[in-house]
Amino acid sequence: MEVVWHGHYVKYLELARCALLQKFDYDYPQMRASGYAWPIVDIRLKYVGMVEYGQAVRIRAEIVEWENRLKIEYQLRDAATGRVLNKAYTIQVALEIASRQMQYVCPRVLWDKLGVNPA
C-alpha cells in the first residue's frame, strides 16, 4: 500500500497556510516584523480518504476566525476528481515577541492585513 505518511498532512497544511497568509502580506516574516509570533496551539485532521504517492491534490485554506485567535480551515481534495480526502483546521494565537505574552485579542495589525473590522 503506497499511502502518504500521515505526518506529511501537517506539512501540506503549513504550505497552504503560508500561501494564504502571503495573499494578505502577513506571512511569517511580516508577523515577526510586526512584533508578534503566531504559534499553532491546536490542530485537527480528519482523514476522509487516503492520498497515494504521486497523487495530485489541491488544498483549499480559508480564514474563519480572527478576533481572538486565528483559525484556518482546510480541505485537501483529489486534483482530478475533486473528492475530499482530508479536512482540517489549525488555531494560532498571537504572542508578543518582546514580552512573550499571549494576546487574548488578536492585534490590530492582523485585522488591518485582513481588511476586517471586529465587532
Structure, described:
24% of the residues lie in helices and 34% in strands. The protein has one domain: Thiol Ester Dehydrase, Chain A (Roll), CATH 3.10.129. The protein has 119 residues and is α+β, with helices and mostly antiparallel strands. A four-stranded antiparallel beta sheet has the order 2-5-4-3, covered by helices on one side. It has three helices and seven strands.
Structural class of the helices, strands and pairings?
alpha+beta
Global geometry? elongated
Proportion of residues in helical segments: 10-25%
Fraction of residues in β-strands: 25-35%
Question: What's the CATH topology name?
Answer: Thiol Ester Dehydrase, Chain A
| Average pLDDT score | 95
- What is the annotated CATH architecture? Roll
CATH class designation: Alpha Beta
Order of helices and strands: HHEEEEEEEH
* Secondary structure tally, helices: 3
- Could you name the ranges where pLDDT drops below 50 across 5 or more consecutive residues? none
Q: Report, as a whole number of angstroms, the end-to-end distance.
A: 50 Å
Total discrete domains: 1
Number of strands: 7
The CATH fourth-level homologous superfamily: Hotdog Thioesterase
Largest sheet descriptor: 4 strands, antiparallel
Question: Main sheet: which strands, in order across?
Answer: 2-5-4-3
Rg: 16 Å
